[in-house]
Amino acid sequence: MFGPESPIGYRNPRVWELLEAARGTLHPDSLDAIYRSLMPIFQADLPMTFLHPGILHVAARRRVRGLSSPYRAEPTVWMEHLWLEDER
To answer: If 82 and its partner were Cys, which of 15, 42, 51, 66 is the partner (CB 3.0–4.6 Å)?
Structure first.
């Protein structure tokens, strides 16, 4: 998304260098340093922003089990982790 052929039109050579460095390492300390270097650039450039807040509404019957917050609150995404409790 932030490379030379960015579909959003954002082009910053330093960002591209840092992202390439991140792709080339798996070392957690190196990745941390790279992402810490990216944040001030993104804060200054603000390459994108959300135009509206993401709002999610979830409704389910009491029989549906396996929904939890915040990680499994969306039933359509976590369908394989849900089950129905027997009615008594």
So the answer is: 66
